[in-house]
Design brief:
CATH class: Mainly Beta
Structural class: mainly beta
Number of domains: 1
Strand content: 35-45%
Protein name: Egf-like module-containing
Shape: elongated
Largest sheet: 2 strands, antiparallel
Keywords: Disulfide bond, EGF-like domain, Glycoprotein
Number of helices: 0
CATH superfamily: Laminin
Radius of gyration: 10 Å
GO molecular function: calcium ion binding
Pfam family, one: EGF_CA
Length: about 50
């Protein structure tokens, strides 16, 4: 299953990266996770402009 096929998988300003059995959302250049992590950590975590 490609979770990234659904554009709503990741929040605005994030890119979805599919991997076997999983996926991750990473903030686009110029944005950072509201939790301060490199990748998003779950529901409610968003990408904010730096």
């Amino acid at each position: 299953v490609d979770e990234c096929a659904d554009p709503a998988t990741c929040p605005e300003h994030a890119t979805c990266h599919n991997s076997p059995g999983s996926y991750s959302c990473v903030c686009n250049l110029g944005f950072e996770s509201s939790s301060g992590n490199t990748s998003l950590q779950g529901p409610g975590d968003t990408c904010e402009g730096r």
